[in-house]
Write a structure and sequence with these properties.
Layout lengths: L1 H23 L18 H13 L14 H13 L1 H7 L1 E4 L3 E6 L9 E6 L22 E2 L2 E3 L7 H16 L8 E6 L9 H11 L4 E6 L4 E2 L10 E8 L1 E10 L3 E2 L8 H14 L8 H11 L4 H8 L1 H12 L3 H7 L2 E9 L5 E2 L2 E10 L5 H12 L4 E5 L17 H14 L3 E7 L5 H4 L3 E6 L4 E2 L1 H4 L8 E3 H18 L3
Parallel strand pairs: 3-6, 3-7, 7-17, 8-18, 9-16
Antiparallel strand pairs: 1-2, 2-6, 4-5, 5-19, 10-14, 10-15, 11-13, 12-14
Helix pairs in contact: 1-9, 2-5, 5-16, 9-10, 13-16
């Protein structure tokens, strides 16, 4: 027994030693940071233009009967008036009437072109919430170091920063060797099926194959990741797809005074509980593993120990991350019941009940995987699984490289503007126009050069959306450096 205990003690000591060595050696990269670069941005001009851009109410409704088009024409006309140098130097092609495509022709046709993109349409204000805004949502009010209003971050700030950056480059006499495209979509919030899709088809018809594209998708974050003091910059290298399925439950109908033991609503409820309690399989691998490792290296001892020793603590790490909505979404295809429909009269038991479930597909999964999972988990022949309104699923995007020159450039510019920022690859949980542009790009990235905190993030598609004036200035500087460096590399 003594020998056994001694052997167990030695094994335990060895295990502890291995854990400690792996943890202590698991730390942030020691590579030298690039020197920070200052760009002389006209703060007053960029703030004034951002405010005016918000005031033009380019709201996408997704309904042809309620969609106003005049504000979009006004916005295009306003850019002509406000940025004449860009229009003169690059020229403008209008796609689907309101989406803007600029072409800055490069001198070296051997270099593949790149695309920088943003969108200027915005989501509607939730009815009844107008009074909850600190300032009217389309006022473009400038106060407290912010410009306030719908579209401030999503995504008119991206449009303005790019136009300001190009204007500044033109004023300084810059001419690119590599062709650079700028595209500003007018219907991203409803899928981009006219603007971004039309621009993609237009470029494809001209034989254009992009080296890479850059769209919205993530930001530099401040204080968003618990326990991490440094700014974090997840440059997203993929985005999730989506699929909508109807669960149609069938049961006995009849008069409500004499209900059967189980009716359609019961059957549907049980099915929904099952799929919520049994999510699709996931895990930390690929992009997720690279992202978590990059974050963990800047964290405390416990987080570093878990990440450095996933062979032992992988399950625990996945479980802990899965407790937050974002950590769960990063690991798997998510399941979200969004619409439930049943019954037409209070005293009639409906024979059918329907729930629409939205899935956001992780790159490892397909639509067929979803159907197989639902069939297995629900395990009830009384529940049909049907595509919602015959909408074909949109698969997750290809995963772009985070080990190439393009990603290195995006990282370098981030650190040139913001200093000691932790840059990691990430994945966009929602959809962007890049689902179209990626069809003609070798690699596609989703990242905006502005800093956000948790309060800023709450304004996305919500109340009190705003953008910091410092973001407009530094964002313009970042796009200036990005275009300048990408244009000659």
């Amino acid at each position: 027994m003594r020998k056994i205990l001694l052997s167990l003690g030695l094994v335990l000591c060895l295990l502890i030693a291995v854990l400690l060595v792996r943890t202590l050696s698991f730390s942030g990269a020691s590579s030298e940071l690039p020197e920070m670069v200052s760009v002389d941005v006209d703060e007053e001009r960029v703030v004034q233009n951002m405010s005016r851009a918000i005031q033009i109410q380019t709201v996408s409704t997704g309904d042809p009967e309620t969609q106003e088009t005049a504000p979009f024409a006004e916005y295009v006309a306003w850019t002509r008036e406000t940025y004449p140098e860009v229009h003169e130097q690059l020229g403008l092609e209008l796609i689907a009437e309101h989406s803007m495509l600029f072409t800055w022709a490069g001198s070296n046709t051997d270099l593949k072109p790149i695309l920088l993109t943003a969108h200027y349409d915005v989501v509607p204000i939730a009815p009844g919430s107008e009074g909850d805004w600190s300032y009217p949502p389309f006022s473009g009010t400038v106060t407290g170091g912010y410009v306030w209003g719908r579209g401030a971050l999503d995504d008119k700030s991206g449009v303005i920063a790019m136009l300001e950056a190009v204007t500044l480059l033109i004023e300084q006499g810059f001419t690119p060797e590599r062709t650079i495209y700028l595209s500003f979509g007018h219907d991203e919030e409803v899928g981009g099926n006219l603007g971004a899709k039309g621009i993609t088809e237009h470029l494809r018809s001209q034989g254009v194959q992009l080296a890479w594209s850059l769209d919205e998708g993530s930001f530099v974050t401040d204080g968003v990741v618990p326990g991490i003091a440094k700014l974090m910059a997840p440059i997203n290298v993929a985005e999730k797809g989506w699929a909508n399925y109807d669960l149609v439950a069938h049961g006995p109908g009849g008069h409500s005074s004499m209900p059967e033991k189980e009716v359609a609503v019961d059957i549907l409820a049980q099915a929904l509980v099952k799929i919520r309690q049994n999510p699709m399989s996931g895990g930390i691998d690929g992009i997720g593993e690279e992202m978590i490792d990059g974050i963990a290296k800047e964290g405390g001892f416990v987080l570093r120990m878990l990440a450095a020793n996933k062979w032992l603590f992988g399950g625990l790490l996945e479980s802990q991350l899965g407790k937050s909505p974002s950590g769960n979404a990063m690991q798997r295809t998510t399941t979200a019941p969004t619409i439930v429909r049943a019954g037409v009269k209070v005293n009639v038991i409906t024979p059918t009940a329907v729930a629409t479930v939205n899935f956001r597909l992780h790159p490892r999964d397909t639509a067929a995987d979803i159907v197989a999972h639902l069939t297995k988990v629900i395990d009830d022949e009384r529940v049909e699984i049907k595509l919602h309104q015959d909408q074909e699923p949109s698969l997750a995007s290809p995963v772009s490289s985070w080990e190439n020159d393009a990603f290195a450039l995006l990282k370098r510019v981030t650190q040139q503007v913001y200093g000691d920022v932790v840059v990691v690859p990430g994945i966009t949980m929602g959809g962007t126009d890049t689902k179209h542009y990626s069809q003609i790009a070798d690699d596609s990235y989703r990242f905006q050069y502005m800093v956000v905190n948790s309060e800023d993030l709450s304004g996305f598609h919500g109340t009190n959306e705003r953008v910091a004036i410092s973001n407009l200035v530094k964002g313009t500087a970042a796009y200036f450096l990005l275009i300048q460096q990408a244009g000659i590399e």
